């Protein structure tokens, strides 16, 4: 039974400005957020069926708001849903929460927009009440139009018969969640079509202009024409072709980072597109002819038509007559031009690097596969294509299955319908039981994939599973290889090839021998451990110079969290400017030089910083990255840098994974934003970094993206986190990661013991007492000062003479350290700091890296580029100017220093 409504106030936390006069809100970025603390509002423990209603009225750029929930493990992309577009100033939906809720978050839009905002209302309800409320508007319509609803009821009954009651419950859930009977009807129709064809479940969305359109992935969607270039990719059918051409999307995103990219595809293949992070819109159509309509009505500023010229619509028999690209590439000539990716992109008139495809498998697909009861060790068979000349004898498939089972592996068959029959224990028929992406997940977990040359082979290429592919002559092509990436180079794949005829005429022995070889070359372990893209080898000689990387704080711009904690418009410049000295000769306040009190919202600031750094021998910046259970802080400068591709400066990230507290002003127990580590958040975090890893500026070590973690001691199981991250990186095509941990808070854990590659030292405030200044008398220290003062000369001697360690440790020389702006009379201060002493320390670290490491593992860090509130910065100031930058250039042998 439904309870009374509870009004919950919404607290803006990011990218939102309110006009008090008009009462309207404006989002000033693409990530506005509104927070609700349920426990503080007496609704802690909210669980079960809940009716949620948001009072929201858009004035400009209406969007579907997104709701996130925290059930104890923080906010994440796995716990979210899109709410309906507001109607009459309200957006309402029913949701079922399995676990008690602590907080809610509403992202009202994902672009710059203007709107009026009320409260978020919730009330507990029941499944029956939710279903009845959702169905009530359609009862009267059913009475007026019984024929339509009779047909719909017949479809629901058939869906129940084909796929069971669970599919009908999902349809009801679609109605409850979307409050849209049209979407429920489309959902049922789509699922029924899949069930009849043996394909399985798929996501369904609303219809728009001749096709179903999905908007998602966090970008600004459907901006008015002229605001953003709109690129339309057309490839509507044959899912192997679609998977093979996935690199086109990443190529276009790099070329046009701000464009809106849409992919037009047949509805039954849309799930391959829906989860791609670089695709803004999925436009689902019924056939190739619908794509011709989209081409002709001017919806796109740029068209990328990946179909070969002369392709004929299988439904309408209308041919495609292209006017752009290479018109000689047709169905009869395409493999003359290379693999599928090469042929289709040449035919579209674009040049795309020969890269392996990627598949983005959503968590729901993986969870579904978890429940299928797959055996521990298995080989996937795919036995049937869309061309008889490709298909092998079914008796041979059965014989091969028996041999594989005898070797200790189960056999899992996928496809539309099974072709292996009467096989004893060890054979599993999953034909027609999965969606496309669930089939891809089954392949990903397999020890080996064996199949005819067809779509699932492209899945295997995308997920990195070792494969045996049966291939022979096809039409006029005596030898061909349809794959890009590793498979195109015949790595991680064995072709059972018939050079004298079609694959259907292959003998048994060549295929069996190929499978035996595949199982004998490491396939006993799941192939998820095999990289999708082979790790790149160092291209420079082993005698390369060490790369110097400076830590960079992206803090110097106001954010709502800092406004709330320290006052409107706060940045650390406020503390820096008002700081004072506690003894004679203390350099406080420290005043910036040529860069001034800058604001990182201005892109020219970061470009000037990069020019200064590169001119003085600094290879790149390591930006501190602030991620809290799906919530990012201080992200505007980094997002701007990624989006604009400026400055042209190598970079990497260090996850500053502590709680965000008020420790600067002595209130360390007051948590502003909590950090709650869990496997789900670890997974969301690493996936969030994948677009940055694709950036050519991102710093790599032997081809592996470099990722640094500040506090590995805060992870419940850091080794498990490292393994999870590496597996995800391999699945996404990055090969592996190069993981570094900071030693400052946990100096006794070795990196290899937790699955990390190396550590780096941070000589800040955790120092032995013998490094303190011997005589404080001449300094005339204020009696109010209760902090610590160290002798920089002793620190340099200590760190230049540390004994070696039995693991990889990177050096990290410090500049001055004086955190008086943050901690006042409790500060830690380095005294006797000079550019000459710093240069000696840097030179020692630089030469040490040359002695201990080779190639791209030669790294040196420096703390820091711009930690002004801690007195540790390379940027010019009014006292020393560029003296520390010039000392850096001399230490690393940069031409400016020489």
Could you characterize the architecture of this molecule?
This protein is of the alpha/beta class and 898 residues long. The protein folds into five domains: 6-125, Jelly Rolls; 131-197, no CATH class; 215-348, Rossmann fold (3-Layer(aba) Sandwich), CATH 3.40.50; 363-529, Glycogen Phosphorylase B (Rossmann fold); 547-891, Glycosidases (TIM Barrel, Alpha-Beta Barrel), CATH 3.20.20. Helix content is 30%, strand content 21%. It contains 25 helices and 38 strands. Strands 23, 24, 25, 26, 29, 30, 31, 32, 34 and 36 form a ten-stranded mixed sheet that branches. Strands 1, 3, 4, 6, 9 and 11 form a six-stranded antiparallel sheet that branches. The chain has a six-stranded parallel sheet with strand order 19-18-17-20-21-22, with helices on both faces. The longest helix has 18 residues, at 127-144.
Summarize the structure.
This protein is α/β, with parallel strands linked by helices. It is built from 25 helices and 38 strands. It has five domains: 120 residues, Galactose-binding domain-like (Jelly Rolls); 67 residues, no CATH class; 134 residues, Rossmann fold (3-Layer(aba) Sandwich); 167 residues, Rossmann fold, CATH 3.40.50; 345 residues, Glycosidases (TIM Barrel).
Q: Please state the overall shape, judged from the principal axes of the Cα atoms.
A: globular
CATH hierarchy: architecture of the largest domain = Alpha-Beta Barrel
The secondary structure category is alpha/beta
Q: Under CATH, the topology of the largest domain is which? A: TIM Barrel
